[in-house]
Amino acid sequence: MKLYNTLSGQVEEFVPSDGNLVKMYVCGVTPYSSTHVGHALSYVMFDTLRRYLEHKGYEVRHVQNFTDIDDKIIQRAQESGVSEDELVEEFIGDYFDTMDALNIQRASEYPRATREIPRIIDAISGLIDRGHAYPAAGDVYFRVTSKDDYGKLSHRTLDSMIAGARIQVDENKEHPMDFVLWKGAKPGEPSWESPWGPGRPGWHIECTAMSLEYLGEQLDIHGGGQDLVFPHHENEIAQSECYTGAKPFSRYWMHNGLLQLGSDKMSKSLGNLVSVVEALERYSPDAIRLYFLSSHYRSPLAYSDEGAAAVERSLERVRRALIPGNGAGAEVEADTHRVRFAAAMDDDLNTPQAVAALFDLARDINRGRDAGQSVGSGQAALRELGAVLGLTFVDRPAPEADLAATPFIDLLVSVRTELRAARQFALADQIRDGLAEQGVSLEDGAQGTQWQRQTTE
């Protein structure tokens, strides 16, 4: 198995440091608003990576944090007239509800910044003791000049960082790129006691403290969106390796491309969001997952209703392949598709090619069943490979009106079958055409006529 490593800029063979155990840390959300499909893209991708590693026989210890104290949380809580804790609990609940709906497995641990304060303070103290950080006026800053290879993840130099950034002048900093590890308390904001006075942790240090606490000094995989490469992950590497004594913090750095709505990245700050709840009102969880997985994880992806609706329609072919068959002919061959699937996933998690192998298997099952072949082993392979991608093949719930129409559609299909048997093809075609006008398509095969509703969103 090979994975692209952002640190080296190359595709590398994946070899965990501890035999069969894979230690994976994925940066989580800041819970101050509803979980959106941009979040979902990242977590579907890392869920699929974890599923495939487990499929290959690895044990995965997966840690994902919640940044539950932040300027945006404080601001949103004040605007909403609730406490920071109430706001955070609401949106952590929203996160779990929507990720569960998308069939994303729960991480091994979900540490929160506010519950790791002692560990964070220990890490900051260690950095100060080693000469990599310094207190100033109630804050504590990381000294970027103390790390010779600072910038190695984003492949930037300090000079280029300064030239390309709008940096607010801070007389307390030794260097413009020094970043905060501990923020001194401000009136009306939550704070914790520390050796440097009351305050709260900076954004970057929480991930170092949590990964050290739950996964040890070296990770196998550190993941997140491409927008986290700099400054967040760059700063994580610097502070973590300075704390542990330059031991490589993570062996592989993986970053997914970002979801776009129109020409812009989908983000809370831009306000161009589609919540997961909104997406699930229109499309099945399988369709949303498959929409993301049909593009390579490192590529940007544009989200659109037209694209999601097309994926929903294409899924009907796969679901139809799982209709039981009782053919007595030769078994539909699945091994070739298994090999293609594994080869694609081993090639830097090439899910578009893996999805293609899955659809080709579904096509062969449909053809084989219609030709009277046995399809049981092919269907078992389809379910197994689909599960690696987190697909359940469960259709989205039909609206009440559709449920009420189902027995009448079944009756019309039965009448059409009798008309075809009586060679009254004109009348049979009228039923087919009338159903098509109502968004119901028919497909005739050796096992009878199957019908499905066409997605029109």
UniProtKB/TrEMBL annotation:
Question: Where is the protein situated, by its record's location annotation?
Answer: Cytoplasm
Gene Ontology terms: biological process: cysteinyl-tRNA aminoacylation
TM ranges are none
One GO term describing the cellular component: cytosol
Q: Which Gene3D superfamilies match?
A: Cysteine-tRNA ligase, C-terminal anti-codon recognition domain, HUPs
Ligase among keywords: yes
Specify where it is mainly localized: cytoplasm
Q: Would you identify the family this protein belongs to, as annotated? A: Belongs to the class-I aminoacyl-tRNA synthetase family.
Domain Cysteinyl-tRNA synthetase class Ia DALR residue range list: 340-403
Q: Which cofactors does it use?
A: Zn(2+)
Q: Which residues form the signal peptide?
A: none
List the PANTHER family.
CYSTEINE--TRNA LIGASE, CYTOPLASMIC (PTHR10890:SF3), CYSTEINYL-TRNA SYNTHETASE (PTHR10890)
Molecular function, one GO term: cysteine-tRNA ligase activity
Organism of derivation: Geodia barretti (Barrett's horny sponge)
Q: Which Pfam families does the UniProt entry name for this protein?
A: DALR_2, tRNA-synt_1e
What EC numbers are recorded for this enzyme? 6.1.1.16
Fetch the SUPFAM superfamilies from UniProt: Anticodon-binding domain of a subclass of class I aminoacyl-tRNA synthetases, Nucleotidylyl transferase
Protein name as annotated: Cysteine--tRNA ligase, cytoplasmic
Q: What are the protein's UniProt keywords?
A: Aminoacyl-tRNA synthetase, ATP-binding, Cytoplasm, Ligase, Metal-binding, Nucleotide-binding, Protein biosynthesis, Zinc
